[in-house]
Amino acid sequence: MFRTPLAIAAAIALAAPLAVQAQDKLDGQWHGDASLGGALSSGNNDSMTLSVNANTSRATTQDKISLYGVGNYGRTKVDGVKTTSADLLRLGGRYDFNLSQDWFAFGAAEGETDKAGAGVRDRYNVNGGMGYHVLRDERNTFDLFGGVGYTDTRFINDTSDKGAQALLGEESKHKLTDTTTFNQRLAYYPKSGDLGTRVNFDAGLATQISGGWTLNTGLSSRYNSEVPDGLKKTENLLTVGFGYKF
After folding, report:
1. Which residues of the chain fall short of a pLDDT of 70?
2. From the CB of residue 131, how many other CB atoms can be counted at a distance below 10 Å?
3. Under a CB-based contact definition with an 8 Å cutoff, are residues 159 and 145 in contact?
């Protein structure tokens, strides 16, 4: 769907993940959501896919802690031969500290494995920097952020890349109606030494259907200029499923 980092950035007008209010609740309590989706088919060829997405955060007037996790597993069986088509798992978190009404400092860490899709046995990333609240009201938020970090990636072909890498990004949340929310996030890691350029884009749409239950549609796109031979540089994941907001 997206073939270059520029195309991914241009797609920013598309959607966002899970059902939360545009403005975080500053009550010092944990709030979040989780969604689950999948598909199963059988016959001449058997296939199964399962996707999980979870986010939670705790915010006050002074700071905010955010935790998230994404999982996607796929398996196919053709002529009795089983093949893993997807095995993505990503876990991470970020701490924001408000320096003023508009400026904040942050520190973040993330771990990932994606052997079938991107040839990544494991990747670890820590970073920190500054951010600016461009827009904050009851229905919309928009932040810009940038910093520097350290990335260590090991691939399935026994090669590895590691070193310092800059980070530039933006994220926003929008409450479109009383029951529908739209969020998106773009993170850009420019090429640095042996480390290739990486672009991560996450988007989704959530609609409340009953109580805390939601119907979620999500889009995740990953671009990496350095991948093992035989693998594509861009990986896209479109999910539809049910979720719960707390």
Report:
1. 1-23
2. 22
3. no
Residue the block writes with tokens 């990636």: 153
**The two structure tokens encoding residue 172:** 């926003």
pLDDT at 243: 92
Write down the pLDDT at residue 79: 81
> How many Cα atoms occupy the beta-carbon half-sphere of 225 within 13 Å?
15
Q: Give phi and psi for 54, each to the nearest 5.
A: -140, 140
How many CA atoms, within 13 angstroms, populate the side-chain half-sphere of residue 197?
Answer: 12
Distance, in Å, from the CA atom of 8 to the CA atom of 47, rounded to the nearest integer, reads 29
With CA atoms as reference, report the closest residue to 116 among 246, 231, 212: 231
Q: Are 78 and 47 in contact (CB under 8 A)?
A: no
Hey, what are 109's tokens?
């860490």
What number of other Cβ atoms are within 10 A of residue 105's Cβ? 16
C-alpha 180/C-alpha 216 separation (Å) is 10
Instruction: Spell out the residues 6+ positions from residue 188 whose beta carbon is closer than 8 angstroms to its own.
Output: 5, 9, 167, 168, 169, 197, 198, 199
CA distance 164 to 237: 28
State which H helix or E strand residue 207 sits in. Answer: strand 198-210
What are residue 96's DSSP bridge partners? 64, 106
Q: What percent of the chain has pLDDT over 90?
A: 61
Helix, strand, coil percentages in the chain from 3-state DSSP, rounded to 5 = 5, 70, 25
